[in-house]
From TrEMBL:
<dbReference type="InterPro" id="IPR036409">
    <property type="entry name" value="Aldolase_II/adducin_N_sf"/>
</dbReference>
<keyword id="KW-0456">Lyase</keyword>
<comment type="similarity">
    <text>Belongs to the aldolase class II family.</text>
</comment>
<protein>
    <submittedName>
        <fullName>Methylthioribulose-1-phosphate dehydratase</fullName>
        <ecNumber>4.2.1.109</ecNumber>
    </submittedName>
</protein>
<dbReference type="Pfam" id="PF00596">
    <property type="entry name" value="Aldolase_II"/>
</dbReference>
<feature type="domain" description="Class II aldolase/adducin N-terminal">
    <location>
        <begin position="22"/>
        <end position="202"/>
    </location>
</feature>
<dbReference type="InterPro" id="IPR051017">
    <property type="entry name" value="Aldolase-II_Adducin_sf"/>
</dbReference>
<dbReference type="GO" id="GO:0046570">
    <property type="term" value="F:methylthioribulose 1-phosphate dehydratase activity"/>
</dbReference>
<dbReference type="InterPro" id="IPR001303">
    <property type="entry name" value="Aldolase_II/adducin_N"/>
</dbReference>
Length: 256
């Protein structure tokens, strides 16, 4: 860990957790840079290394560009706050994220967004269309969950998990996009590709003429060739590292 970052670590936080906090805070700043924000809402959560299924979540009330390593909130699977915090957590974020962290062993990071393009596609009956370069890389990787209202009811957890199955990407109908990964970078690479596919689809659907469908055999091969999703090939780490370097140049205060 960088020596300067280590010096900012508060006494109540061990070095392993602090490193996870710095990494997660950096990704919140990346989301802010990319415009993947929704006022003080939406969440990126990250498992804290160790035997317990504790995870870090953003404090409810702060915008993404205010997130720092020290103000992230550590909670358990019951929503109990386990770290010093002046802020509560958002119940809607807790329900979705805790369901996945509790039941999917390798879901170390969960990301959920309400981007305009993602939400627009989530509102369409047909969902994601396999008609562009990015959606072609997501063959058989996307699940759907029907809208049940604001996700603050614990009984929806089991239905979310059933809808998601073994997929790492979930389109929440009428709601938004979700990804989970073995690392922050893995979840980010998946979500970026899905969101980009939605952006292109929204523009394509606004044009005259017919879209060109891509044959399933081609999308299957494209997905197999898209190595950025594979942990064995870095799972997007080089992309995320480049974006973190950019936010660090702009404002390194996330490290505090």
């Amino acid at each position: 860990m960088n020596e300067n970052i280590q010096r900012t670590r508060p006494e109540w936080c061990d070095p392993t957790e602090w490193e996870a906090r710095v990494q997660l805070a950096a990704v919140y700043r990346v989301f802010h840079l990319m415009g993947w924000t929704e006022l003080i809402f939406n969440h990126i959560t990250l498992r804290v290394p160790g035997p317990h299924k504790h995870f870090l979540i953003n404090p409810f009330g702060l915008t993404y560009d205010e997130i720092k390593a020290s103000n992230l909130v550590k909670i358990d699977l019951h929503g109990n706050i386990l770290s010093p915090s002046e802020y509560p957590i958002n119940p809607a974020g807790f329900v979705i994220h805790s369901a996945i962290h509790a039941n999917v062993e390798n879901a170390h990071c969960v990301m959920h967004t309400h981007t305009t393009a993602g939400l627009a596609v989530a509102c369409m009956e047909g969902g994601l269309a396999y008609t562009n370069f990015y959606s072609a890389q997501l063959h058989d990787m996307v699940a759907y969950h029907d809208f049940e209202g604001i996700t603050v009811h614990a009984e929806e957890k089991s239905r979310i998990l059933k809808s998601m199955g073994d997929k790492r990407l979930l389109i929440l109908r009428n709601h938004g996009l979700l990804s989970h990964g073995v690392t922050l970078a893995h979840a980010f690479a998946l979500l970026w590709t899905l969101n980009r596919a939605c952006e292109v689809q929204v523009v394509t659907d606004s044009m005259r003429g017919q879209t060109l469908p891509i044959a399933p055999a081609i999308t299957e091969r494209s997905t197999r060739d898209a190595l950025q999703f594979s942990p064995a090939h870095g799972a997007g780490q080089n992309v995320l590292d480049a974006l973190v370097r950019r936010v660090t140049r702009i404002d390194p205060s996330y490290q505090e």
